[in-house]
Amino acid sequence: MTGLEKIIKAIEADAQASVDKILAEAKEEAEDILSLATKEAKQDSAKIAEMPAFEVKAILSRAESSAKLLKRQMILDAKQQVINDIILKAKTKLTSLSDTDYFDIILQIVKKHAHKQAGIIMFSQADLDRLPKKFEKSLETAIKGIQNASLTISKENSAKIDGGFILVYGDIEENCSFEALFNDAKEELQDKVNAFLFE
């Protein structure tokens, strides 16, 4: 099982508990609002009883529609909160992995983003301090299949990022920090989490 698969399994377990709790609370609150709206409508029934039947029906229909819309919106908001929480937990999990798992994931990302030329890879100071001893050799092996690709680790200049790295090719910088990667994939991640949790 890869480091990424371990993260996904851990997140799935955390997510299911969060989903159940938040959705139950949202549904309960929505039901309370619907119940309150019905109660208020019954209390106003004396006034309403004096109105023509078609007006009464229209008022009740609008109240019911409003309550249902509010309930749907509350459940949608709760789902969005769960999705955002899960994505945030995934980012946090990545940065708190063991050095071995963390740098295995870094190598997978490097393989995907490396260019066919010589470049520099920049890490945060925290990541530079915990680089595995043979990481340069692992990095070389990871990009071996990419024609003309080579990366030198910048040890003097560190990147101001929380995790991941930045690739520098002359004047071109490719931000592969976890923050940037998650932002780039935000919609796709939200769709995947939504499909996993709610469909």
Strand order of the largest sheet: 2-1-3-4
Radius of gyration over C-alpha positions, nearest whole angstrom: 26 Å
Overall shape: it is elongated
Total beta strand runs: 4
The domain tally reads 2
**First-to-last CA distance:** 26 Å
The biggest beta sheet, please? Answer: 4 strands, mixed
* Strand-pairing-aware structural class: alpha+beta
Average predicted confidence as pLDDT:
81
In short:
With 199 residues, the chain is an alpha+beta fold.
Would you give an account of this structure?
This protein has 199 residues and is α+β, with helices and mostly antiparallel strands. The protein has two domains: 3-96; 99-178, 2-Layer Sandwich (hypothetical protein PF0899 fold). The protein is built from eight helices and four strands; from the N terminus they run H-H-H-H-E-H-H-E-E-E-H-H. Strand 3 and strand 4 (172-177) form a beta hairpin. Helix 3 crosses helix 8 (186-198) and helix 4 runs parallel beside helix 6 (135-142). The longest helix has 43 residues, at 53-95. The protein is elongated, with a radius of gyration of 26 Å. The mean pLDDT is 81.
